[in-house]
Specification:
This protein has 387 residues and is an alpha/beta fold. 32% of the residues lie in helices and 21% in strands. It has 13 helices and 16 strands. The chain has a 7-stranded parallel beta sheet, sandwiched between helices. Strands 2-1-3-4-5 form a 5-stranded parallel beta sheet. A hairpin with a 2-residue loop joins strand 14 and strand 15.
């Protein structure tokens, strides 16, 4: 029986996919698999039983990725499962920033007791008129699942769309509309676009990427939208830019004590993926990834280990070896099996940054002594008998 623990509430559409071979546990310390949304795991002591964590969402800054990799714990996310929900809110952000709908609504509430409100509205509406987005230039920084959908939708609405992503995948490139102009320098977006929307992960290289220097390169009156991660934008620099009018609007899905008090900011309460459909899609995708890994050792959409898929094992045994991405690891693993008289039927080795993953189908089962010898190889993080 495989044990699963949910740190956050996970949509029943996902957890209903578990078969009778799985049981839900309230104890984190006994879990083999964990499902999580936004709950922080940085202060948790990972139990030895834990094999995998599936994040029902895209961002994984709430999970200690490196320490999990060191322990051979695979961390999955669900890229694209919530893309449509976020895309729709980004489009709403574009409209809210272009036409002062929020200010207009607030003004109407303030005069709701005016018996001549219809005439008052006709006189005062010019203060909230705004402009149309058709024909304006939109810069999309990051062309992953969400960024690509935003770019395509904006192009369909008649915007002139520029996309920047130095690490764009082949799949994402194929999904982009031919009307989206692929830009090789992010400075071109800063300098030319009327609207800029961020769709990149939070890393050392992207933290505070919108700052005093980059804002200085932007057009006067630019609109900046952030539905990716709060810390991509330097709050002090943005507050100063809004105050001076350099930035006309800042739309953020991440309210904090600074952003909610910025002049010209529109703070939305982290609604990007908070739709019933997005939560269901993320839960189903996370559960499927977790089940395929626990049952077959296959890795899909991991953020700390490479992708690897050998289907369902038809041989006597399948063994997974997590190890450092250093020379002679494969030779040591196969040599250990050969010395034990174990023949390898099929094998896949993949690497990702500092770590690698080797999956082996064997013609005969291995005993504990062979597993111990594999585990004792310098550079091996974990050995798991899948079957």
């Amino acid at each position: 029986m495989r044990t699963i623990h949910c740190i956050n509430n996970i949509s029943k559409c996902g957890t209903d996919l578990f078969t009778d071979e799985y049981t839900m546990t309230d104890s984190f310390d006994q879990a083999q698999g964990v499902l999580v949304r936004s709950g922080s795991m940085h202060d948790l002591e990972m139990p030895k039983s834990l094999l995998a964590i599936a994040r029902a969402g895209a961002g994984v800054n709430n999970i200690p990725l490196d320490s999990c990799a060191e322990k051979g714990i695979v961390v999955f996310n669900t890229p694209g499962a919530n893309a449509n929900g976020v895309k729709e809110l980004v489009l709403a952000g574009l409209f809210l920033a272009s036409r002062d709908v929020v200010g207009g609504i607030q003004w109407c509430q303030g005069i709701k007791d005016d018996p001549n409100i219809a005439k008052t509205v006709e006189k005062g509406k010019k203060d909230f008129a705004g402009c149309e987005i058709k024909g304006k230039k939109l810069g999309v920084i990051g062309l992953g699942a969400i960024g690509a959908e935003v770019a395509n939708a904006a192009a369909a609405l008649g915007m002139e769309v520029y996309g920047y992503d130095p690490f764009i995948s082949v799949n994402a490139a194929w999904m982009l509309s031919r009307d989206v102009k692929h830009i090789t320098s992010v400075d071109s977006i800063y300098e030319e676009c009327d609207y800029i929307t961020l769709h990149v992960p939070l890393m050392d290289a992207t933290k505070g990427m919108v700052n005093e220097e980059t804002i200085g390169k932007m057009k006067d009156g630019v609109v900046v939208l952030n539905f990716a991660r709060d810390l991509l934008v330097n709050d002090d620099a943005m507050a100063a830019a809004l105050e001076s009018g350099k930035v006309s609007r800042y739309v953020t899905d991440f309210p904090n004590p600074k952003s909610v008090n910025m002049k010209g900011a529109i703070a939305i309460p982290h609604l990007g993926a908070s739709t019933e459909e997005s939560e269901d899609n993320c839960a189903k995708m996370a559960v499927k990834e977790l089940m395929d890994y626990l049952e077959n050792g296959n890795i899909r959409n991991s953020v700390n280990f490479p992708a690897c898929d050998m289907g369902v094992c038809r041989m006597a045994s399948r063994v997974a070896v997590f190890h450092k991405n250093i020379p002679n690891m494969i030779g040591q693993v196969t040599g250990t099996l050969a010395a034990a008289g174990v023949n390898i039927s099929d094998m896949t080795n993949k690497s990702k940054d500092k770590f690698a993953y080797t999956l082996l189908d064997l013609e005969n089962a291995v005993d504990d002594s062979v597993i111990e010898k594999l585990s004792s190889i310098d550079g091996v993080c974990r050995v798991r008998v899948v079957k």
